[in-house]
Sequence to fold (558 residues):
Amino acid sequence: MTDQPTTVAPARSAQQKDRERFVAFAFCWADVLLEIDRDGVIVYAAGTTPTFTGKTPDKLIGTTFVELVADPDKALARELVAVAAKRGRIDDATVRLTGPNGPTSPLALAGYRLTDFDGHYFFALRSTGATAAGPDGRKLQRDQTSGLYAGEDFASLAAQRLKAAGDKAELTLISMPEMAALRDRLDEDTRNSLAGTLGAALRANSFGGDSATEIADGRYAIVHESGMDPRALEQHLAQVTREIDPTGKGVTAEAATVDVKDGGLSDGDLANGLVHVINQFRETKGTDFSLTSFASNLNSMVDQATKTMQGFRKVLGEASFDIAFHPIVDVKGGRVHHYEALVRFQDAPADESPFKMITFAEDVGLIWHFDLAMAKKVVEWLQPRRANKYKIAVNISGQSIANPSYHAELFALLEANPWTNENMLFEITESARIADLADANHFFQTLRDKGYEVCLDDFGAGAASFQYLASLDVDVVKLDGSAVKNALAAKKGRAFLTALTKLCKDIGVETVAEMVDDQETLNFVRDCGVDFAQGYLFGKPAIDITVFAKTGLPRLGR
Fold:
C-alpha cells in the first residue's frame, strides 16, 4: 500500500488571520464589508455587494468609497471619511449607495480604523435598522435636501440617544446668524448644495451619524459623543460656508454644549421637554441674543418644563379645572346660539391667563390630552343639563386633529354619548398648525357625519385662511378679533368684511365675529353681514352659565 501524498495548505500570515477574524466578526452585523485605504480607495470587499451596487466584490477594488455612494449622500460620505480619520471610528451612520436601479434604501454604516493594516478603514453596511423611530414606533422624518430631522422628530430621537448613552452623550446648539444673508447670495442649486453639505457635516459629527436638526434658519442642534470639541465644529462649519460663498466671506458659527440630565424621565417626557427648549431656541430673537447664555440655562429650562409637564398631567388626571362659558349671540335676534367652553385652572392665580399653559401644552405635545379632558368635562357637565338645550363649543387644537390617539378616544367618547350631537359642536383653534389639510378635512367630515357642527377659528388672521376655506368643509368660521378690529379701523375694511361674509354665505358657511366689545363694533359687523358675535359686550366668561340669563344680554339696538 502506497502512502498518499499530503497536501499542505500554505501558512497564513498573522495579518491574514486577523483579517479573517475581523471579517467574521463584521458579518455578524453587516451585509457588506469594505476595506479602504488612507486615500479612500477600496482594497478589499466582501458580502452581497451585487445587491447594493450591481458589482461583485472584485469589481469594487480600485474604486473609491465615495464613488459607491448615491449622489444625494456623497457630501455625507466625504464628511464620514473625514470624521473617521479624526476619531478612528464611525457609529451607525446612514447612507444610500448607487444601486443597479438607482439609490438604495438607507443603509446603516459603521466603520473602524485598524493601525495594523496601515491605518486602513473597515466599513460595514447593513440593510436593516437604518431608519430611526420615535418612542411610539413611528418612523422619523428627515428633510430631503439636508438629511436633517424635523424639530419634533429630532427631539424624540435625541431623548432616546441621550438616555441610552447616559454621560457619554451631550447636546450642542449651533447659531450661524448670517445664514439668511448667505442664502440670499446663492442660486437655488447652490443653496441646496449648502444645505446638503452642512447637513452632512452635522450628521457626521453627531451621535449615531443622524442625531441632528435645523431648528430655524441658521440655528441647529446635534446630539454627539461627550468630549467633542465645539470649537473644531465651529471652524469646520464656517469653512464649509466660505467654500460655497461666491464672496469667500462665509458665515461664522457659534456652538455651545450642554449636558442634559434626564432625571429619570421617560423617553416621551424628555422629548417633550426638548421640544419646548427647541421652540424657545427657535423663537428667541434680537441682536443681544447670546447662545452661550441660552445654553447655560438649558438644564434649568428642561427641568422647569419637566415640572410643568408633571403638574399639567396631574391637573388632567384629577380634572382639577373648571369650565368658563362665553356666549355667541345672534346679531339680529339677540338670542344665544351657543357657548364656547374655556378652561380655568383651579390652582392658578386669579389674574393669570390660561393661555400660557395651553401654549406650553402645545409646545410639548400634551395638548391632545387636554383637548380630550375638556371634551370629557363638557360631556359630564351637559349630562344632567341636556334637557335645557345648552349647546357648547369644545375647542380642538390644530395639533390634536393630527393625532390618531386623540381621534380614537374622542370618537369612543362620542359613541358612548350619542345624544351630544345636539348639545356640542367643535371649534378648531390654532388652525395655522394644521399640516395636512386632506387628513384634517377627513376628521372634520367624520364629526359632521355624526351630526356635529365644526367651526374654524382664527379666520382672517393669516394668508392661509382662504386656502383653509377652500380645502376644509366646515359649518362656521370665526373671524379673528384682530381682523375685525382692523377692518373697523381701515378705510376699505367695511368692503373687505362684507365681501368675506358674502363669500361664506355663498358656500353655506356661517360667520362669528370675535372681540365685539362695544355697540359700535356690533353695528359694524352686523352691517357687514356677520351672523353671530362674541365679546365682552355680552359679558365676560363665567363658570356659572346662568349669570347670562340672570343679568340678561344687552339690547341689540342701533
User: Anything to note?
Assistant: The chain has a mean pLDDT of 83.
